[in-house]
Amino acid sequence: MRLCEADAAAVESLHAELSSLGLADATSARALARARLAAGRPREAAAALAPLLAAPRLAAPTARLAEAVAAACAAAGLAEEAAALCSAPPLPPLEAEEEASLSATLRPAGLEEAPPRLERTLAVLKPDAVKAGLEAEITSWITQQAFEIVDIRRITLSEERARQWLQVSWGTSAGDMERRFFQEMARFYASGEIVALLLQREGAIQAWRELLGPGDPSVARKHAPATARAMWGTNKQANAAHGADSERAAQREIEFMFGEGCAVADPKLSHDSTLSDDPSPKTRVERSW
């Protein structure tokens, strides 16, 4: 899914203003590169990253974004730009971790797709993204994709609560708790703070799944470079963010994180709904849960 030109232009304008004030930094440069990449302008995305590539050691978000932009440049036949990005200092090798595979819900052939409705879904920023200080960067990017962030909850899960979360999000039975990757993932979710986001927009569930990208960030950077996991993910486990894969899953997960009464397709939601005057929801902090 691409940013519209108006959104990309807004990011360009903000970056130019920050530059004129001497306030532009790596975060704003990455935001500019992502906006250009999402708008289908890989050459300009590479140009936005160029000043950051002179560093002897790249920050992980910069290195991963450079890889995604390089892939897009190569696909567009921009060999020189791709080569320049590929010459950036590499990240150290990372161990691949297993993640539960989520089955895609396929629409029966021959049926017309219903128009998107206003709905809600759950996004979770995983411990790797929060520890890396990427929360503001990712949530800003999410709002650029036409999502309203209805509520935010910062949580530190106990390992037991993390296991309960995985049973809810994966829909697994108690027997699956003995599987190695289940226990590893539970420990991962309990390893640091997570951020739960209650998102709202038309077709929110499918839209967020598409914006997440493939579960393996290396695959995402090759095939879907403008997605969240391509830009911020490290490996199959530490892949930056989670999203519900169906309406039923979204309902379970929203209730787990935000309590009962938060419906996916809330009868009170309509196309006439207006956003709050304050687009920044109150953040609830849970130190342990």
UniProtKB/TrEMBL annotation:
Q: From which residue to which does the signal peptide run?
A: none
Task: Supply the alphabetized keyword list.
Answer: ATP-binding, Kinase, Nucleotide-binding, Transferase
Extract the ranges annotated as region (Disordered): 266-289
Q: Where is the Nucleoside diphosphate kinase-like domain?
A: 118-265
The family database entries (InterPro entries) matched by this protein are listed as: NDK-like_dom, NDK-like_dom_sf, Nucleoside_diP_kinase
Domain of life assignment: Eukaryota
Task: State whether keyword Nucleotidyltransferase applies.
Answer: no
A single GO BP term for this record reads: CTP biosynthetic process
GO MF annotation, one: ATP binding
Q: Which PANTHER family match?
A: NUCLEOSIDE DIPHOSPHATE KINASE, NUCLEOSIDE DIPHOSPHATE KINASE DDB_G0292928-RELATED
Q: Which family does it belong to?
A: Belongs to the NDK family.
- Can you say what this protein is called? Nucleoside diphosphate kinase-like domain-containing protein
Species source reads Prymnesium parvum (Toxic golden alga)
